[in-house]
Amino acid sequence: MSRTELAKLIRERRAIKKGYNDKKVTKETVMQLLEESIWAPTHGMRQPWRFLFVDKDHLPGFAKKIAATYPEERQENRENYLNEPNAILVVIMKTSDIPKQWDENFGAVSAMIQNFWLLAWEEKLGIVWKTNPHIYDEKVKKILNVKDNEKIAGFIHMGYFDEVPDEKGRIPLADKFEVFEG
Ligand SMILES: Cc1cc2nc3c(=O)[nH]c(=O)nc-3n(C[C@H](O)[C@H](O)[C@H](O)COP(=O)(O)O)c2cc1C
Fold first, then answer.
1. What does each of the 182 residues of the chain score in pLDDT, given as a tens digit?
2. Non-local CB neighbours of 152 within 8 Å, separated by 6+ positions
3. Atom of ligand 1 nearest to the CA of 110
4. What domains are defined for the chain?
5. Which end of the chain, N or C, is surrounded by fewer C-beta atoms within 10 Å?
């Protein structure tokens, strides 16, 4: 059976975690991709996302500030790590006191990020959704002006790349699929 282009894209998309080259990731490219990505499903039309883009020129200062929230012995390592990508997109999600709405918001943000990931892949722009400990740190939230009713859903590390990593495969669906038989 031949796969549709979309099915191929879904399968071939990879997380690009290292090996970023020097080609600049521009604000214009990221905004173009986000213009499409925000057509993700969103319950109550809440569209519970906002974005903070950090380009290559501003990454060193950003990395220093975020790294400074770690214990001293980790700071150099974390600063270098945050300087590896060409740009970082901070995805900020609206939280809720109502668990149902929180879950719906995280679901919508996840769908939006997957859209972004696939569209970036089409443009040969590598990205990875990162959930490092710093995204949960109140000090980091303060530095980035994340409000009390918001959370950082992730740092999206971005960069163009020369080598596609090997795929990791998936557990066969048959191992995870049952039919309810009453
Ligand atoms: C919600 C979420 C959080 C993730 N957080 C991290 C992370 O903190 N660090 C990391 O290296 N990769 C992270 N990833 C990327 C996964 O490790 C990656 O998608 C997985 O290894 C499968 O590889 P593939 O995307 O290339 O198929 C995250 C992915 C998701 C969906």
1. 578 999 999 999 999 999 999 999 999 999 999 999 999 999 999 999 999 999 999 999 999 999 999 999 999 999 999 999 999 999 999 999 999 999 999 999 999 999 999 999 999 999 999 999 999 999 999 999 999 999 999 999 999 999 999 999 999 999 999 999 99
2. 90, 91, 92, 93, 135, 136, 140, 141, 144, 146
3. 1
4. 23-163 (3.40.109.10)
5. C
